[in-house]
Amino acid sequence: MAMLLKIDSSPMGERSVSRKLTAEFAKTWTKAHPGGTVISRDLTTLDIPVVNGAWVAAAYMPEGARTAEQKDALAVSELLIAELQKADEYVVGVPMHNFGVPSTLKLWIDQVVRAGKTFAYSAAGRNGLLTGKKATLLIASGGVYEEGSAMEALNFVTPYLRTVFGFMGITHRLWIHGHYGRKHHCCRRDPEIDDRRS
Ligand SMILES: Cc1cc2nc3c(=O)[nH]c(=O)nc-3n(C[C@H](O)[C@H](O)[C@H](O)COP(=O)(O)O)c2cc1C
User: Fold this and answer.
1) Distance 20 CA to ligand 1 centre (A)
2) Tens of each residue's pLDDT in the chain, 198 residues
3) What is the pTM of this model?
4) C-alpha to C-alpha distances, 37 to 17, 46, 110, 182, nearest whole angstrom
5) Ligand 1 atom with least separation from CA of 100
6) Residues near ligand 1 (Cβ within 6 A)
7) What's the rounded Cα separation, in Å, for the pair 16 and 10?
């Protein structure tokens, strides 16, 4: 049965634009996948640890040799990676904060980008391990970062997310939804994503 993982990272609750976008996406997806399951992960309600030296040591320790403390240090990472492995498709709501991703999403990224789990190095080079997965990244920003405009260079969200999701082997598409207050402007999207608001 098809499974969608819906990830939200906005702290703005019901006022959040990105949460509205992910909810709409999940609704449409559910109609298109009768019997499918949606798992929701709210990054603002999970206590995601900061990656520290103990975490790195645990991650690079062979699984069978990890101490109980090291297993504990990786518990959240294991949980979040298992969700990525289980789902077929992801939708991620991303509010632009200070030209980048919000800190909750950065914490999530640091927990899920893991050697041997979501990417690997081999003699042939580096490869992502989450192949066959598809992600839709729905970004909300106050400003409009139109392609070719002076503002474009200030958008660090899009290139960063493309790099991270691509690094894990995930096929991805992005849609950035810029708005001034309540007025909606769609400034940049991948062609395959419908713009229902412009
Ligand atoms: C802490 C914070 C930082 C923000 N930084 C930016 C920014 O750098 N550029 C921008 O265009 N909008 C910025 N905004 C506006 C948000 O991107 C915008 O309100 C967007 O709708 C946030 O998504 P959300 O509604 O899902 O929370 C910021 C908002 C907050 C709360």
Assistant:
1) 14
2) 899 999 999 999 999 999 999 999 999 999 999 999 999 999 999 999 999 999 999 999 999 999 999 999 999 999 999 999 999 999 999 999 999 999 999 999 999 999 999 999 988 888 999 999 999 999 999 998 887 888 889 999 999 999 999 999 999 888 888 776 554 544 445 444 443 332
3) 0.92
4) 23, 21, 26, 32
5) 8
6) 10, 12, 16-19, 95-99, 140-143
7) 6
Instruction: Read off the tokens for 193.
Output: 């994503």
Q: Atom 29 in ligand 1: which residue has the minimum CA distance?
A: 97
Superfamily name and number for 3-193 = Flavodoxin domain (3.40.50.360)
**Which tokens belong to 108?**
């999530």
Q: Of the candidates 138, 76, 141, 133, which has an alpha carbon nearest to the alpha carbon of residue 110? A: 76
The preferred substitution site among 97, 99, 175 for testing ligand 1, maximizing ligand atoms within 8 Å of CB, is 97
Give the closest residue (by CA) to ligand 1 atom 3: 97
The structural domains of the chain, with segments of one domain joined by +, span 3-193
